[in-house]
Each structure stands twice: as C-alpha cells, then as structure tokens.
Amino acid sequence: MEEKKTGTLVQVYTRFTLKVADVYKKLRFRKLLVDSTALGNSIVSYLLELKLPAEGLILTVRTKEELFSNLKILMEQKLLEIPNDCELLAHLNCIVFERNRTGSYLFFDHLKGTHDDLAYALSLAVLAAGHRKQPIIVINTN
After folding, report:
1. What CATH number should be reported for the domain whose range is 60-142?
2. How far apart are CA 135 and CA 39, in angstroms?
3. pLDDT tens sequence across 87-112
4. Buried-most residue among 22, 71, 98, 125 (CB within 10 A)?
C-alpha cells in the first residue's frame, strides 16, 4: 500500500517523524541530531515524545560553517564513505557560500532550482556520530 503524499504541514511532519522513528527502530542510532531552526523544533519535540534520543541544533552561519567544515575534513581524510547516490551528490554540490575579506562566512545557500536538504542531513548525522578514528560509512535506508 502506498502512503498518501498530500496533507497539511502538520501531517507531512508527522509522516516524516514517524519515518525517522521507523529507521531508528531498525538501526538504533546513539543520537538523532535534527535541524531545529524554525519548524524543526516541533519535529524534535515529537521525536522526544516518541522516546527517541533526539537533539536539536539551530542552524546559524556559524553552525553551518562548523557542519560543512567537519564534513569536508572527514572527506579529505577519507574518514567518511558515502554512497554513489546522485541525489545526495547533487545536494552536496549545490551549496554555495560567501566570505568577507577577513575570511569569515557571511552566508550559506544553494543554487536556484536545487536542494540542499541531504547535505544538511549528512552533516548533522556525521556530527551526531561524533569524532572517531574509524571511517563513517553512510548507507541508504530506503
């Protein structure tokens, strides 16, 4: 049976949160780190109601810099292995940023007509996994 894809924003977030809970039941992550900027805070609350180890992180320019810097370092050190997934790679490749003359980041964005959700999901998952010396392997749970 195929799940209905329409509905209110609350229904969409409920479906998403329940899907996260299903994946958690299969894989038992130590921590679920969720973008709690704006509407994401309600997702964190719902995950906590479901007794999942959820934590929220508000995404600011500074936290985005930390997330993507961490991701870049792990990739350069070959401590992060990601699947050859076209959608994930497209999300990673569409991120743009601007820096000022002192090197500080002014903003992060994505190219018009593209999406960056999976890039943020990956960077949050890697941060939640913590610093380790063994490689982190990302798997597709679909």
Report:
1. 3.30.420.240
2. 32
3. 999 999 999 999 999 998 999 999 99
4. 71
